[in-house]
Amino acid sequence: MDIQIKEMGPRDGLQNIKQVIPTEIKIKLIELLTQTGLQYIELGAFVSPKAVPQMADTQAILAATQALTKNIQTSVLVPNLKGLDMAIESDMQEVAVFTAASETFNQKNINASIEQSFVRFKPVIEKALLHKIKVRAYVSTAFVCPYEGDINPDKVVSIVEKLFNMGCYEVSIGDTIGKASPRQIKTLYQMTEKMGLNPFLAGHYHDTYGLALCNVYESLQQGIRVFDTSIAGLGGCPYAPGAKGNLATEKLLYFCERENINTALNASKLEPVLNYAKTNIPS
Description:
Radius of gyration: 17 Å
Largest sheet: 8 strands, parallel
Order of helices and strands: EHHEHEHEHHEEEHEHEHEHH
Strand content: 15-25%
Number of helices: 11
Shape: globular
Distance between the termini: 33 Å
Number of strands: 10
């Protein structure tokens, strides 16, 4: 079995860290990641520097790492047309948009309803496709919301279907606070499998309660073959203080090696990145 690991460390892994990390450290982190066999790295986000100061240097990072990532698929998060224009200026071949499956979470996160978020990024997707830029989408709180509790999977399916109809090539399904259970994973992906969508979905699981690998295992049973991770488990959720972040890249790699699942990653090359992240990036 083959799967693809998509590295979120430079973006999702860093964006919530309050202490601003020097640009050169981020560039070195990306350089080391490019040497591991990874074929996909999300490099940053063109978001408001006031809202997310950690991402303010994204354009400089893209310029500095362009040669390093020429053989790797890269992406940036863009919330609006301004962000997309910056991505176009940086010659990005892929961007990502985002929404949530919880109305309350969406309001607190981006001050918009789910429907309003679609209205906001509809022109973003249209313009990106016009420029032959691929669009990936994230659906946060797809299983459990810190405010609303368990999310109805029918709602998630409806959002996912709409994203594909708008032109997204892949939708990443997020367990944002790490409370999803394998049962919930199975229920959702059995629904999407009936629609033929599972080959175009990715799992994005946080490890807050140690369930991320359990959810990966169940996802594999349902035909999911793409997973988002973050080196050293960087990241976290601002709504779960002290919680662990994304599923660690090295943790998923070890699991895959034990299960004879091919990832194309080199464990020995991942070790220096892990050490660098632990040494230079505050948890």
